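Q: I'm teaching a short session on how sequence maps to structure, and I want students to see two examples side by side rather than one. Could you give me a first protein with its sequence written out and its structure tokens following it? Keep the formatting plain so it prints cleanly on a handout.
A: Of course. Example one:
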Amino acid sequence: ALVMLRLHLDIILGMNFLVLNRIIVNAEAQTMIAKDTGCDLLHPPMITTTPPVKISIEC
């Protein structure tokens, strides 16, 4: 499945796309679960990064 973060538009996915990508749509719960990963495509986990470690070398 292709997930586009921060997309502020409603989109309609075709049945073939949903079947091919094994996505379960639950309109009441407002979720779209990818069966292969268990990931909710409408509420993806936040990705956090850590800043690089600064190394100083003294001669």
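Q: Perfect. Now a second example for contrast.
A: Example two:
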Amino acid sequence: MGVFERAKAASGLSEGADETAPYVCLACGAPHEVQYHRCPDCESFDIRCARWVEE
């Protein structure tokens, strides 16, 4: 397994990953594909990784 394959597997970007957005705003619950510094929907600064929120 190469460096890129290991990085993709560790980050959850490999094939077979679930189709949910990787980031979520804790204030309004909006899902996001990228980690914004500020939520574009409610302007909160509380954007978290969805995997951490689910655990």
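Q: What should students look for in example two?
A: Point them to this: The chain is about 25% helix and 15% strand. Also worth mentioning: The first helix runs from residue 3 to 11.
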